[in-house]
Amino acid sequence: MKAQKAHLKLCTRGGILQTMGNDNAKMNVINRSSRNVRAFISQEKLDVEAFITKYNGQSVDTLLPHSAIKKFCFRPDVPSYRILISENGALPWEKNQYISLFIEDEDDKEICIKHMRFPVFFYLLSVSLGFLCVMFVCLWSGTWRGGFAWDGSFLQFNWHPVLMVTSLVVMYGNAIVLYRVPLTWSRWWCKRAHAGLLFVAMVLSVLGVCAAFDFHTANNIPHLYSLHSWTGISTVALFTLQWFVGLCAFLLPWTPLAFRARLKPLHIWMGIAIFILSLITSLSGINEKLLLTLNGRNGSNTKPYTALPAEALFANSLGIAVVLFGLLVLKLLSSQKWKHPESENETDRVRV
Amino acid sequence: MKAQKAHLKLCTRGGILQTMGNDNAKMNVINRSSRNVRAFISQEKLDVEAFITKYNGQSVDTLLPHSAIKKFCFRPDVPSYRILISENGALPWEKNQYISLFIEDEDDKEICIKHMRFPVFFYLLSVSLGFLCVMFVCLWSGTWRGGFAWDGSFLQFNWHPVLMVTSLVVMYGNAIVLYRVPLTWSRWWCKRAHAGLLFVAMVLSVLGVCAAFDFHTANNIPHLYSLHSWTGISTVALFTLQWFVGLCAFLLPWTPLAFRARLKPLHIWMGIAIFILSLITSLSGINEKLLLTLNGRNGSNTKPYTALPAEALFANSLGIAVVLFGLLVLKLLSSQKWKHPESENETDRVRV
User: What is the rounded distance in angstroms from the CA atom of residue B318 to the CA atom of residue B135?
Assistant: First the structure.
């Protein structure tokens, strides 16, 4: 069985250096001869001086082998204990830095699993609902609306709901909850999967917009007149902007860490705002499509929307599934407890 | 000048009792003879034993006058320091409880003001946007759509957008950010204002639904066929349920505190979900109304929606204002930093 990380944090809050971690981590510090202790270091500034010498008869080197200081992690929700360390020592690292120790510990796995039971349940539920949304929107366009083409006809427009729901709702939603689950992925891979999934979503959403614009042009329908189109085009524009800013700030290696750290809260908030805009746009879009196609005109044989034919029931259910998927994703995002332990700080490049 | 509260927290994290607060609070403990020290106590369970005897030569009674233990407050974002307290003492309160001290302190006012500059700006912006939304929806229905009546005609339907936007978006939004601003209100008044504002919103939203249903009945239009109506009726139903559950759980005095504390995260999450549902429903409703009325039929003299006449521009702008208002409210709610210091725990009735 692969060993899990336990967390033994050393921080300088209030001017007194201390370690925090669960009891397993504590025992592992004491009996660390058989364990792999790794120390991670951050650039987070603190306004107090840190100091450390002894813990329970052990020297600093036992707690913090210099060679292993690599990376920072902050995880405030793990059950913690505290060890006080006397004041008569010097720091083995720079002043005003925030320190964490990670200790390999099999028993800590249980804590991780217990902590992740709920988010994993919600995540699986949201993945299932996302799959249902894609299936429903494909069936609606593919079966009820006659299938797909790229010839300027209604069949071309059918790509629009499929591509928009798939990209801006389902793929986008899955990409933004990546930092919550699964826990075993490294931050490095989470970032790449997040950016990659969003890149595919961005391409598909632009294609979806093109499908609608081409259809309008071919049928002399003006572009961007409805409220749906106003919110929709804003969503796609903001999404594209957010993706490029995110790429430059968080993936290119030469971005200053201080800039990353300052941008991150805005990036997170914009990401959630764009997702809510996507939900708003999707629902008004499905409603608009049904009002425009099931109106007893256009030579359609179907019953009008007001009579709630099977297609209307089906597409309304798609709308409800989209809402439920969206609320589940927002639920997953809302919990501070389910954050990745390593995703708190922008320190990928700090390798001391 | 009225003195503000500074925070001196005593907590049992890791089995060692300690106080946390800013430097002003620390000084005020030391020189407390001229200050009004109040201790607040919670029912939060911790899995360690707490102990306290001395701080800097002062006795427990100096730090925690028994008579004043009243209420709990937890505010992790206030700049903090820590005092360690030796182990050879007994607790003046129950084991496994979480303790906070509040100290009157004029200097701390500056910290509060600095902390609240951003939320106050966002709050004023959201109030202005909310006012704009109400004004726009009244003008749309009152002027562009011919005014109001309660006679089963289109003029009766005009009440629907006005009442729904006013109640479920603007009043609801203002009611849910009450716990963020203004800081000078007591929790007791925040609760009552929150419940009262939501009660008025609930009554208005039910009236708004009645306006639409009556109009449908008078004009032989089926009820609840569109996706807008499905999300709308769900929103109003969930809102009504949430209000009654909230009343029973958080305002009636005989509800067990443990039940309150367990329900609170769900209550908060449901509140936000209902607000997002309101935004989704409003946007699809405005879009639907424009598609149904500006369709070149119904003997209307106006240009169709596709030609984007002045009314369409106006109502689309209303939709954008609603979205911006909603995102601002969600921004205000999202920040942990802007939480009321006293709103963390359900301890209104704990007066020891």
Answer: 9
Q: What is the pLDDT of residue B334?
A: 83
**Burial level of A41, CB count in 10 A (0-12/13-18/19+)?**
buried
CA distance linking residue A95 with residue A283, whole number of Å: 53
Question: B274 and B314 in one domain?
Answer: yes
Q: Quick check: A291 contacting B, CB < 8 Å? A: yes
CB proximity B241 to A under 8 Å: no
Cβ contact B207:B164 at 8 Å: no
Question: In Å, how far is B17's CA from the nearest CA of chain A?
Answer: 11
Residues of chain A with pLDDT under 50: 1-113, 341-352
Chain B environment of A225 (Cβ under 8 Å): 305-308, 312
Q: Quote the CA–CA distance of A307 and B222 in Å, as a whole number.
A: 7
Interface contact flag, A15 B81, Cβ < 8 Å: yes
* Confidence (pLDDT) at A137: 97
Check if the beta carbon of residue A165 is closer than 8 Å to that of residue A137: yes
Residue of B nearest to A327 (CA): B273
pLDDT digits (tens, 9 = 90+) for B173-191: 999 998 877 556 667 788 8
Q: Report chain B residues whose CB lies below 8 A from the CB of A9.
A: none
For residues A46 and A138, state if they share a domain.
no
Measured CA to CA in angstroms, residue A113 lies from A1, A118, B17, B105 at distances of 14, 10, 30, 45
Q: Are A69 and A157 part of one and the same domain? A: no
Mean pLDDT, all residues of chain B: 70
**Closest chain A CA to residue B20:** A14
Residues B218 and B331 in one domain: yes
Bridge partners for B41 per DSSP: B99
> What digits encode the pLDDT tens for the residues A219-245?
999 999 999 999 999 999 999 999 999
Does B315 contact chain A (CB < 8 Å)?
Answer: yes
Q: What is the pLDDT of residue B305?
A: 93
Structural domain contains residue B345: no
Domain residue limits at B65: 4-106
- Contact (CB<8Å) A225/B305: yes
Strand B4-11 and strand B99-105: the pairing is antiparallel
Query: Is the Cβ pair B320, A231 closer than 8 Å?
Result: yes
pLDDT, averaged in runs of 10, over chain B (352 residues)? 35 33 40 30 26 32 35 29 30 38 37 58 90 97 93 93 98 90 70 94 97 95 96 98 95 84 90 98 97 77 88 96 96 73 43 27
C-beta pairs of B186-190 under 8 Å, 24+ apart in sequence: B186/B342, B187/B340, B187/B342, B187/B343, B187/B348, B188/B348, B190/B340, B190/B343
Q: What is the pLDDT of residue A320?
A: 97
Could you give phi then psi for residue A58, rounded to 5 degrees?
-100, 150
Domain count, chain B: 2
Give the model's pLDDT for residue B338: 64
> Percentage of residues in chain B with pLDDT exceeding 70?
59
CB B119 within 8 A of CB B183: no
Nearest chain A CA: its distance from B29 CA (Å): 16
The pLDDT value given to residue A280: 98
Do B330 and B183 share a structural domain?
Answer: yes
Instruction: Kindly determine whether residue B227 and residue A316, on different chains, have CB atoms separated by under 8 Å.
Output: yes
- The answer to whether the Cβ–Cβ distance between B80 and A14 falls below 8 Å is yes
Contacts of B80 in chain A (CB under 8 A): 13-14
